[in-house]
Write a structure and sequence with these properties.
The protein is mainly α. The chain folds into two domains: 9-174, UbiA prenyltransferase (Tetracycline Repressor, domain 2, Orthogonal Bundle), CATH 1.10.357.140; 176-309. The protein has 13 helices and no strands. It has helices at 2-28, 31-48, 54-77, 79-84, 92-95, 100-119, 125-144, 152-169, 177-200, 202-207, 219-243, 249-271, 278-308. Helix 2 (31-48) packs parallel to helix 13 (278-308), helix 3 runs antiparallel to helix 6 and helix 9 packs antiparallel against helix 13 (278-308). It is globular, with a radius of gyration of 21 Å. The relative contact order is 0.10.
């Protein structure tokens, strides 16, 4: 009986170690951030070609792998800084859950897989822009963020490229109004996304030796900037619902209502309350943004199918 129990215990510990290892690797790759980026590439693809196909799957798989590889490399580049900040000190590398070598191998495998997926598409543009996004994120943004607050802008451009990659993979033209609106939409999303994180963990960002907008602007001014950017994002979400081919009046109305609700809540929280809930605003901001994206993408597919019948 004791032998069986010991054996069961050893098996249980073995599976626990496997589970912990998988969890560490997923956290290292920042999967929670990479999934929305891969989802955004699907939106771009469906706006150009409203049909779930092999190419759509390859685009999503390619962007997810490439983004996860870049995020893993970023974790390796910043592991010392991560260990100093409350928000990031429990990540796998600062905690010693994984080694630098393991992170480097994971990054190389994921980046290679992402580029291979994208290279199977008919157009060369997805591979080219995938490499550009990787260089912007790991070569420009990650380096500049320790030197200037303006590093957020190349970071935002990088985050806005996945939907453009999806658009081009679906056969969309490079210089079109839809491509421009997609790019603008995701740039406008990236900036408040980062600012909300910064304000929620402002003690972290203001107490360490790297540039922060909190060292330049007061919290009150940052709140006003946030409301302005969120309002601009709301307008962009409404525009993409009206000018993307195939949105129904119902979908357009839902996007308008959701966007107005977002702006009203942000205005009330940031301009009226002394102590806003940045955590709640962060969740609401991302939920409404991707809810609107889901509405526009699904409407495009449904109406295309209905018209085809």
């Amino acid at each position: 009986m004791n032998t069986v129990c010991a054996r069961s215990s050893r098996v249980g510990n073995h599976f626990c170690r496997i589970q912990d290892g998988i969890s560490s690797r997923l956290r290292l790759a920042k999967v929670g951030l990479c999934l929305p980026l891969s989802f955004s590439s699907l939106l771009g693809y469906l706006l150009a070609e409203p049909e779930f196909s092999r190419e759509a799957i390859l685009v999503v798989a390619g962007i997810f792998s490439l983004a996860s590889g870049g995020a893993t490399l970023n974790s390796l580049q910043e592991w010392r800084l991560d260990g100093q900040m409350v928000r990031t000190r429990n990540r796998p590398l600062p905690q010693g859950e994984l080694s630098g070598r393991q992170a480097a191998v994971q990054s190389a495998v994921l980046i290679a897989a992402g580029l291979i997926f994208l290279s199977t598409l008919a157009s060369l543009w997805p591979v080219v822009l995938g490499i550009v996004a990787l260089l912007l994120y790991n070569g420009v943004y990650t380096v500049l963020k320790r030197r200037t607050v303006f590093a957020i802008f190349p970071g935002a451009v990088c985050g806005a490229l996945p939907p453009i990659i999806g658009w081009l993979a679906g056969g969309g033209e490079f210089l079109t109004a839809t491509a421009g609106m997609l790019f603008l939409l995701f740039v406008l999303w990236q900036i408040p996304h980062f600012w909300l994180v910064m304000l929620r963990y402002q003690q972290d960002y203001s107490s360490h030796d790297f540039p922060s907008m909190l060292n330049t602007f007061s919290e009150k001014r940052m709140k006003r900037l946030l409301v302005s950017w969120v309002t601009a994002l709301g307008v962009a979400m409404i525009m993409i619902s009206f000018y993307s081919h195939g949105s129904s009046p119902l979908i357009q109305g839902l996007v308008v209502m959701a966007s107005f609700f977002l702006v009203i809540v942000f205005s009330a929280q940031l301009l009226v309350l002394e102590q806003p809930s940045y955590r709640m605003l962060f969740i609401l901001f991302n939920v409404i943004f991707f809810f609107n994206i889901l509405l526009v993408g699904s409407s495009r597919v449904y109406l295309s199918y209905a018209w085809g019948q």
